[in-house]
Amino acid sequence: MISTTRENCISNLESWITTGGDERTELHSKTNRNKYGINPVQHQGLLNRGSCTTSPLNDFSQLAAQQLLGVDLPRKGFEAIRDDHEQRLKSLLNYGGQDKFDIFWGPSGSDLIYIPLLFSSLLHPNKRILHMLTCPEELGSGTTIGARGLFFMHNNQMGEKMRQGAPIDDSLCIDVIHYSARSAEGKINSHQDEILNTIQQHPDHAKIGSLVIGSKSGIENNIDVIDLVDDDVMWTVDLCQFRNSKRLINKLLDKGCMIMLTGSKFYQSPPFCGVMLIPKSLTTKLAKYTFPTSTPFTSLFSAYDVPRQLPQLRSLLRPFENISLLTRWECGLSVREAFDNIPTEKRKAVIQEWNDLVCEGIRSRPQYFELMPNQEMTNNSIISFRVKANGTFLNNGSLRHFFDDLVTDSYPNILSGNYDKIFIGQPVNYGDRSFIRLALGANDIRQLMGQKNPFSNELAVLDIIAQKLDTWV
Q1: pLDDT band at 1 (very low <50, low <70, confident <90, very high)
Q2: pLDDT tens sequence across 440-459
Q3: Is 434 helix (H, G, I), strand (E, B) or coil?
Q4: With the CA atoms of 451, 455, 461 and 467 taken in that order, what torsion angle do they form, in degrees rounded to the nearest 10?
Q5: Angle of helix 246-254 versus helix 78-93 axis, rounded to 10
């Protein structure tokens, strides 16, 4: 039983938060930070404008995690809490009286890319798989590797060592076609015609179509292509940023799409926690199939990750209790539930006011910044922009080093509200170019709504970035 004293709960919390995933969640021994440059438990004094990349705990989510670990989990047990999380998520996303989906859990959004491969191999045994992947450069770092049926991680959620780049299943034959998010000039590409042509050219393949609504920079694919396709395509829509409406989620479910979500972007759980919403029609179809007696996917998923509606598949996997994943989802769900209590129009107004202010601040500093093209076509809680030092845009490598220096440095007496550090969205590459992002998360918005001068720090963040660019070599 986990101690219920506050001190021991906080001590245990860092361990739970930073394990139960892959190496991205772990703290480096020399820096005591993860690969993104933060320790997710050390959030005091940190102004977070990087919820599109990752987030630390906050005062609200830390209390939720402590309640789970110190009280609810010892009293109820893992499986009861997982069932409770399922019901809470269904309550948030279904309309009254409806139950449109089942839930497949994953230790990260990247792990969810394996689920359509698993299902396709079950529904179409011995068939070659065509995996159409849009916006690969703006997805999670492991997604493009996982889409090919390869292990993207060095260790799995059970803490076991994996051989990164090795195939999950030697019998899987997968052809992956990428559709770039942006042109060389940074403009957002449309993929509809290319996808339709690809489908026509591969009549004998089992097909998976992976679309994106809410990439790292907020790109939203046109989902009309789904209605133009007569072939049997397993459509998966990446909503991992989770910056979308309940109405859109239900629209996609009605189209038969599986939906990838995470609690660790907009809802600001520490990294990472994923979930795949599976339309009831697909679950019913899968439940009728005879499953093999074993599966190589046992190194990726736990029996508790699989919907109860697929008992054969659950029986093939280990009953591993991932308390770390459970804790991170508690953080994300708690913030989501609190955020849903704010009227929609008030939320939208805060995001729009923030977006207008920051975009104007970027435009007014052309010697340092340039907004990415098609900003109006992305989610307005994310702002993407390139940065210059000495009149030259930073390239991929330079911007990565700049980002690391920016988010690990301290800035005393610049920010109001006892903040002395900032975190922003990490660089995103397109070709040999790169941009960074500022992003509001749900808890950020709740905090802004409670302040007398809510946007007092937003231009100061731009000033900090500009001042560091002045001295960047």
Answers
A1: very low
A2: 999 999 999 988 899 999 99
A3: strand
A4: -120
A5: 90
* Secondary structure class of 257 (helix, strand, coil): coil
pTM of the shown model: 0.93
- 416: number of CA atoms within 13 Å, CB side? 11
The burial class, CB within 10 Å (0-12 / 13-18 / 19+), for 167 is middle
206-212 and 233-238 as β-strands: parallel, antiparallel, unpaired? parallel
Contacts of 97 (CB under 8 A, 6+ apart): none
Sequence-ordered list of residues with C-beta below 8 angstroms from that of 442, at least 6 positions apart, any chain:
51, 266, 267, 268, 335, 336, 338, 339
- For residues 236 and 257, the answer to whether their CB atoms sit within 8 Å is yes
**pLDDT tens-digit readout, 87-135:** 999 999 999 999 999 999 999 999 999 999 999 999 998 899 999 998 8
* 3 token code pair: 């101690």
CATH 3.30.420.40 applies to domain 76-335: no
Question: What is the spatial distance between Cα 313 and Cα 120, in angstroms, rounded to a whole number?
Answer: 14
